[in-house]
Description:
The chain is built from 21 helices and 30 strands.
Amino acid sequence: MAKPIKTTEQTEVSEAQIAVHWKEEAYYQPSEKFKGQANLRDPHVFDRFGLDKFPDCFREYADMLTWFEPYHTVLDTSDAPFWKWFAGGKINASYNCVDRQLVKYRNKSAFIFVPEPEAERDVVITYQELYDRVNEVAALLRGVGLKAGDRVTCHMPMVPELPITMLACARLGVIHSQVFGGFSGQACGSRIQDSGSRVLITMDSYWRNGTLVDHKANADIAVRAANELGQDVDKVLVWQRYPGKYSAKTPMVSGRDFFVNDLLKEHTGKKVEPVALPSEAPLFLMYSSGTTGKPKGAQHGIAGYLCYVTATSKWILDIHPEDVYWCMADIGWITGHSYIVYGPLANAATSVLYEGVPTFPDAGRPWRISERLGVNIFHTAPTAIRMLRKLGPQEPRKYQYHFKSMTTVGEPIEPEAWRWYYDEVGKREAVITDTWWMTETGGFLGTTVPAIHAMKPGSCGPAAPGIHPVIYDETGAEVPKGSGKAGNMCIRNPWPGIMQTIWGDRDRYVKTYFAKYNKNPRSKDWRDWPFLCGDGAVQAADGYYRILGRIDDVINVAGHRLGTKEIESACLTVPEIAEAAVVPVQDELKGRVPEVYVALKPGVPPSQAVIDRVVKANEEVIGKIARPKHVYIVPDMPKTRSGKIMRRVLAAISNRRDVGDVTTLANPDVVEQIRVMVQGKDTQATQEALPEDIAKFGQIE
Ligand code: WTA
């Protein structure tokens, strides 16, 4: 067994090389029709983007953008591993997504907004209208004193005002930090504080599953939470879901809160020149969970990020200006930033923006929308696929739409769900790309190029052009393909879409993503800095990767990353709780869900009320997505003799598995008590192996 390597931020993992057995799936081939029209069909692209051509190969990506001033250096490594892409250039993301499309596509739809209530009409926004509205909002933001380098936090739902606000920020060089609308006010507040935003932009309300949610209430909580952490918010700018009408019950705070629509009256028809910004100026922050309780602000720079999402939208999503593209992700996550806003717009796409829940009011909704609007590229996550399959396995047949290409993102997809997606949703006409990547990487890493590679259900494929993955074991040795062994997925080389740093925390950036496999911290050579992605993976003999899930203490719930430490800290805000431990549990629809074990302070009797308080604390501190599947009050946590909680044992119990040998624990008896509480007295644990991410969860504590 490999010797444990002490990693700095990652938990220690004692063994990465675990034999992984899974059935090899048959290949599916793209149709000739698809291949004939695809943007990228030249297999020599992989020669052009070979490691021997790095980094100059990425000039091809930079050429897809319009520059105010050319760059002089493709990749500046002088401050490794803080990469500077296209150094010396001047550019603006808003200009590239909006202004430059006016020449050819002025009257073409940029967005078709579909409200959740089915009786409400679509709102079509042409590139000309997008240009006008982005300019007016930019004038407004400039008017409230915002300038390049300032941070603004947005906490907005899926409405066109969100990309408009982001593009207005980008026009000025203001760094936007959009917090997922479903996160709580408190979660938003801590992100406001971390980013140092003095302005919060929100919306009064939005539709979710048939309810008009009072979202303004969250803004008040967020401002208070930020203030308690030491960050004052001067202004809260409130969009109205129905312009001119206030749809929330929470009162506006005089002098602090302003309706955007009121302020915009002063800026009607105004134009704001897009600021020529350095290539490496930050474009946005996107907070994401990691091993510690504090989410990290992944900072993405303008030129590298924008060219990466532009090129991958064109080559992998295969967006042509005449296509109708629909990505159901939320703009509050990286997928929405990269593949609803920046990538598609830079390609002059027509894109559907849907406000609500995919299964509202029934599981036919996505297919009705696709039929009505002529959607031909469809992009979603395995959780939505599983849900739509469960609720309406034959619904797609009822609608006359035709997809040419489909994407899945965010979680591993089981071959069975993949096949339903292919057969029923794609009607065996559409290619599927299973795109593996993460917040930190800006865009796709592991994927097929749909006109070049065959598809293999359950595997993301090889890698995007210019991405050179490697799987390392714990000792830093390469795990060869076809060995049937798993290890830590890394990328050998930097690429333009990679994050620049963690906002305000350079050390954490180096420790989290590079320290494990970097041998010379002073090296300026990119070859010395493989990027540790945070996932376990196996590579089959054909070169395809199968992603096994997170190797850190992150639970991927329905494609949303939640840090177990964040959930545990939320539980500990309940005064009765002495200790909390969170473990991932397999779930038929959501992939993984958190289950919580709590031990109460002495003298506190167990009660449903305490359980309810724990659930509520998670909703308040993080958001409804962090709601635990179960909360168990235990007499004591299973512990090692040195007093550490054995989460691994709890994870085995929650997942109905054998707990293994627990005789070395300080309190082995408690394990059986907990097992009976969770599984019932007579339940037989299944002998089936645990999925990799759960098996390794909390392995050494
Ligand atoms: C997981 C979402 C398997 C993975 C874009 C990663 C996937 C985390 C896939 C990042 C996929 C994403 N197959 N697993 N196709 N795509 N993941 O930052 O564990 O929200 O590390 O970015 O999602 O989640 P994030």
